[in-house]
Amino acid sequence: MAEFKTVRGMRDFLPEEAKLLRHIEDRAREVARLHGYREIVTPVVEPYELLSAKAGEEVKSRMFLFKDLGGRDVALRPEFTASVARLVATTLRNEPRPFRLFSVGSIYRYDEPQRGRYREFWQTNYELMGSSRPEADAEILLLTNSLMKAAGLKKFAFKIGHVGVLRGILTQEKLVDKVQSTVMQLMDKKQYEDAFRLVESAGVSETCMPTLRKMIDLKGRNVLDVANRVTDLLKDYEKSVEAAKNLSEILSLVLESNAEVDMTVDAGFARGLEYYTGIILEVYVPDLDIALGGGGRYDRLIELFGGDATPAVGVAHGVDRMMLALQQQNTPQKTLQETEEERTVLVIPVKEQLRGEALRVSHMLRNSGTPVELEVMGRKMTKALEDADRRKISHVVIIGERELKEKKVVIRNLTKRVQSIVKIEDVAEALKS
Question: What confidence score (pLDDT) does residue 343 get?
């Protein structure tokens, strides 16, 4: 018989991994709630025309694309933003602004599988639509900072740039949009020399190339100082200066928030998606050279899908990569489960005739909010207790004939190695205490 394996780039999550995945999802939902973001659920399969509208050649080439039975071109979503933009352009178009929308789920890209990169992966996604003000950009950055802390991550840092800085130079130098996008994609991959050759071949001014080369060296953690140096360097490029000033305003707001945020401004930073128009950001942890999350401002995407002019800013976080970072940082399980004070209980009937009573006690405990497993393997008491110990069950409720005559059961605390006899009606309270 053939041995079945997962499709390349896909994988199974075993219980402990699934628990970590859900831990991050739960923290993401709590961060959404605290910031006023409402959850929406969009389809995994969308029209290819929608997903490719502003995705960039790199993402388009990595889509899981196929025809449905009606002959229509559809694809598995490679990100959330296009779906959210569709929703805002159609169903939600008459709702009051701003929109604060949250999504979480699986994403699909046909990348080469490697550490921290899969073809099916999970993201949490936050979109703030309707505001062009710098406090909206600051909110998205601070929200990401809150999520990383809530998940239990330590020593994470932001890399921040502004698409308008580079776009301002290339637009003034009369490079067409398609060439600009290719330049940005090459810079995103740090293929600077290839990017510069492409710019130079477009017949740019004498000052352009020296300015670009100086710009990619402008970076540092004194973020306002770096932003001011960018403004000075690009004084001949009006739109770039505007972008640098916008970046300074956003960074000032973040600093004024009193949140502890580790930031580096990188003037040569670019992201591959074509729809960004303003600030861009990524978040990293030491010793892991892949971004845990990224996003930025995109002010023209909603119009592309037939909606009203709607400025927007958003961010997506890679749940798989956050899991990898937590495991790498050896974040203790206690930290990850600090909100889970519940006990795991196993109910064991001493004899087969007591199975019905064991089910009744289990049902009663679950109704009180206690997670309960029932011994269903027909094991003898000694073996059942050994198995409970091995699986780190905290408490065992033993249904015995003698105790039942007095409407009581035995509770054994496997952690402290003590036991007591308790009235059935008091079991739930006894377990909680």
Answer: 64
Per DSSP, the three-state class of 374 is strand
Residue among 131, 124, 157 nearest 278 (CA): 131
- CB-facing half-sphere around the CA of 116: CA atoms within 13 A: 19
Q: Angle 58-64-68 (CA atoms, 0-180°, nearest 5)?
A: 135
Residue 239 to residue 236: CA distance in whole angstroms: 9
Q: Tell me 136's DSSP state.
A: H
How many Cβ atoms sit within 10 Å of the Cβ of residue 123? 21
3-state SS class at 80: coil
- How many Å apart are CA 287 and CA 223, to the nearest integer? 23
Report all structural domains of the chain as residue ranges with CATH numbers, in order of start.
15-335 (3.30.930.10), 345-432 (3.40.50.800)
**Shortest CA distance to 99 belongs to which of 108, 90, 112?**
90
Instruction: State the Cα–Cα distance between residues 257 and 249, nearest whole angstrom.
Output: 13
pLDDT at position 227 over 80: yes
Q: Retrieve residue 302's tokens.
A: 């909603």
Residues 6+ apart with CB under 8 A from 306: 89, 90
pLDDT > 60? residue 337: no
The answer on pLDDT for 338 being more than 50 is no
Q: 425 pLDDT exceeds 70?
A: yes
Pinpoint the alpha helices (H) of 47-176. 48-52, 57-61, 81-89, 134-151, 163-172
Q: What is the mean pLDDT of the chain?
A: 91
- How far is Cα 85 from Cα 304, in angstroms, rounded to an integer? 9
| Residue 339 reports pLDDT greater than 50 | no
Average pLDDT over residues 309-333: 90
State the pTM of this model. Answer: 0.86
The CA distance from 140 to 80, in Å, is: 16
Determine the straight-line distance between the first and last CA of the chain, rounded to whole angstroms.
52
Q: At 307, list the tokens.
A: 């909606």
Q: Are 414 and 395 in contact (CB under 8 A)?
A: yes
Helix (H, G, I), strand (E, B) or coil at 423: strand
